[in-house]
Description:
four-stranded antiparallel sheet
Amino acid sequence: MELNVNTVYTTVLSILNKEQRGYMTPDEFNKIATQVQLQIFESFFDDLNQFLRMPKTDEEFASRVNHIEEEISFFQEYNNASAVSSGVYTFPTNLHRLGTVYFNAVAGTPQLELVNRKEYKQQLMSPLTQPSKKFPIGILKKDTIEVFPKVTTFNPTRTEAVSDLNFSYVRKPKDVRWGYSINSQGGYLYDSSEVHGLAASQNLISNVTQNATNITNNTYNITVGTTSGVTTSGTGRDLDLAIVVAGNTVTNVNVGIIGTTGQGFNAGDTITIPPSVLTGANQNVIITLTQSNLYVGTRFSQQFEIDSSQQTNTILEILKYSGIVIRDPQIVQAAQQELIQQEANEKR
């Protein structure tokens, strides 16, 4: 079960107020809580590596390995590439730690062997290790993979598509937000709503990560979640877009002009518009959302994505950072000592 952001924030405030150490604003809390969640998330991988080298137990509820694997599994994703050009496929936009890559362009979807440029050159020297449809090779280049053999060399030849590769990976946790409104006395009122829409009257043309050509010039009005064929990688819906095509390619993607600005969207979500919607298009048009596209007001919350079993660690870590923010070394020392003792108990 996800850790409740309001439970954590109110607990932190109660401890700070009881000790008369100061106050933490929602904005300060959101920034610190996001950092703490990421810190705990990254520790899962180090802990898993350590626990795998320790004596194991199969007792129910007591297996440390199973617990960490359950924590990590919440963040596992399986998605296609976000873009492709000349055999070079770009990682999914929310990829954080790469796992396995599969070559969907051929039957059986073999696993891609990932190598660097030097290793690839060495494999070309032997006919037994050269890339083939059954044993494809991918050269890692920052956030892209160049795949061999290229699908354009197949017989019969075929067109490249983002679906040629399927990535198994771990994404980052979403930024924590304690959403609020302000009452008549200037106090903060918690808003538990997790509806994420897009800021109205913006143009998403810079978010088009794959455009198309040969489209009949027109303005196409679509609604994500309603218009047939239009899909999204997330859970977003009810987003009205006016797509302007000039010169037979998409030139503007306007939000909210014709209706609602949607809900349930998050940074990294993609919206795919197929040729069946954009008359004559030679391929899908793909829009990738960023944090700056989302509604930027103070309302709307985002719960912690780590499990509620991490509540104690989370609160202690936030208190440690809060001591730095309000310049009280006693809070930092007390929280640090408690964390050290708890970590020692867990890893005995």
